[in-house]
Specification:
Shape: globular
Bound molecules: pyridoxal-5'-phosphate
GO molecular function: pyridoxal phosphate binding; transaminase activity
Cofactor: pyridoxal 5'-phosphate
CATH architecture of the largest domain: 3-Layer(aba) Sandwich
Protein name: Glutamate-1-semialdehyde 2,1-aminomutase
CATH class of the largest domain: Alpha Beta
Pfam families: Aminotran_3 (PF00202)
CATH superfamily of the largest domain: Type I PLP-dependent aspartate aminotransferase-like (Major domain)
Number of helices: 15
CATH topology of the largest domain: Aspartate Aminotransferase, domain 2
Keywords: Pyridoxal phosphate
């Protein structure tokens, strides 16, 4: 275990139980974590419980949570309406899952179609990863081409096809992003069949699209990079125009932005309608979920009603007649119930305005505190998610967090953990309906103590 004593000194003092759990976990779980994103040096905090905006770790330390399970918990921890909805689903059905179609998935699909302008039909999955993977399969199968275009720095889940140029790094001598592998074990096929676009740089994006449009089966992007780098609306509009002109399905990965930038996600916020949309995170109300919605013409290619697929017994079907999509737990009733309860709360008038106001208040307050203490830093984001960039020299603004002063940011993040603000170091801040004005004011007091420590 790497322990940088200076940086982590108090953290280690306060978190002996987390450390013990981590040491135990490491023996039976690679790296002690079940998802690599949950790891940080010297070891991740092991949480014991959560309520509203707060988490308590196994040492009894209390935190105001700004990670919120990577943005998934839009209503905070343990919201009573979600608990009630899940209990009611169990009471009504007498089981967690029937393994058949059921009313909750129909109601949820109808709800999504009514909220998301880009959705005529919907299928459910168990994660955001599965949703983007299925969206890409639908798009490329419908278009009959395998090459995809994605943006440098955009994350769509942990599988081979999209683990290309997730780390925003090198560009060539003409400023075009490099096509790089982001995982061990990635076949060269994926790099060879991926066109990497520079987000928000239409000139270079257009040049790459013109050069490659004949082989493209899909263009996929996070409308807001990493959830906090907003798009230039013109970039989205031009991308939409180009892909429409050449008949290439445009996929918005709204796993982060769905139900975060309002009820209709980024497509509602920026008024640009994709052919396919991937959702996840908030949609599950704290349970594992994903969904793909889109134009009927594309979605219908996975329907087994006209032509049999490999699992349709007794029908004359050929494996290649249908785009195969299945999953034991797809549309799980408890998940649908939790998601519907979440949406009902979010539909109440003024909810988004309130959370966005608190996010704005927090951002303003943090910037004012940093300025007052002479520590360079600014926030970046839209809606209920933002991040803090600490530039190496004052006045410099970059859209690439990696170009900031990572050491300073890390020192601040550990100081914040010590003060009781939970954030995975270097990660973004997400707010929820549980982050009331009182909670945000308390956060600013703790934030100032953290800033004083790193001055
Ligand atoms: C934009 C985006 N797409 C896809 C995913 C993958 O979702 P999951 O972690 O549920 O598989 C994530 C997860 O953070 C994401 O942020």
């Amino acid at each position: 275990m790497k322990v940088k004593a200076d940086l982590h000194h108090r953290f280690i003092e306060k978190t002996a139980a987390s450390r013990q759990w981590f040491e135990r976990a490491q023996k039976v779980i690679p790296g002690g974590v079940t998802a690599n994103i949950k790891y940080f040096d010297p070891y991740p905090l092991v949480m014991a419980s959560g309520s509203g905006a707060r988490l308590i770790d196994t040492d009894g330390n209390r935190y105001i949570d700004y990670n919120l399970c990577y943005g998934a918990l839009m209503l905070g921890h343990g919201h009573p309406v979600i608990q009630k909805a899940v209990n009611e689903q169990w009471d009504q059905m007498g089981t967690t899952v029937t393994g058949t179609p059921h009313y909750l998935e129909v109601e949820m699909a109808e709800k999504l179609v009514s909220l998301y302008p880009g959705m005529d039909q919907v299928r459910f999955t168990n994660s955001g990863l599965e949703a983007t993977m299925f969206a890409l399969r639908l798009a490329t199968a419908w278009r009959g081409r395998n090459t995809i275009a994605k943006c440098s720095g955009h994350y769509h889940g942990g599988y081979d096809q999209v683990l290309v140029s997730v780390q925003q790094g090198e560009v060539d001598e003409n400023g075009f992003p490099a096509v790089t592998a982001d995982s061990k074990g990635l076949s060269a096929y994926w790099r060879e069949n991926t066109v990497v676009l520079p987000f928000n740089d239409w000139e270079r994006t257009e040049a790459l699209l013109i050069r490659n449009h004949e082989r493209l089966g899909a263009v996929i992007l996070e409308p807001v990079q990493s959830g906090f780098l907003p798009p230039e609306r013109d970039y989205l509009l031009r991308l939409r125009e180009f892909t429409t002109l050449y008949g290439i399905p445009l996929i918005f990965d709204e796993v982060k932005t769905g139900f975060r930038l309002g009820l209709s996600g980024a497509q509602g916020r920026y008024g640009v309608i994709p052919d396919l949309t991937a959702l996840g995170k908030v949609l599950g109300g704290g349970f594992p979920v994903g969904a793909v919605g889109g134009r009927q013409e594309i979605m219908e290619i996975c329907s087994p009603t006209e032509k049999g697929d490999i699992l349709t017994l007794g029908r004359s079907g050929h494996g290649e007649d249908v785009l195969f999509h299945s999953g034991t737990y797809n549309g799980h009733p408890s998940v649908m119930a939790a998601g519907m309860a979440t949406i009902r709360v979010l539909e109440e008038p003024g909810v988004y305005e309130r959370v966005e106001q608190e996010a704005f208040f927090l951002r303003q307050g943090m910037e004012e505190i940093l300025d007052r203490h002479g520590v360079p830093g600014y926030t970046m984001g839209d809606g209920t998610i933002f991040n803090l960039v600490m530039p190496t020299d004052k006045g410099y603004r970059s859209t690439n967090l990696l170009q900031g002063d990572k050491t300073l940011r890390q020192r601040l993040d550990f100081a914040l953990l010590e003060e009781g603000i939970y954030l995975k170091p270097m990660s973004r801040f997400s707010l929820s309906t549980a982050h009331t004005h009182e909670v945000v004011k308390e956060t600013l007091t703790l934030f100032e103590e953290g800033v004083k420590k790193i001055k």
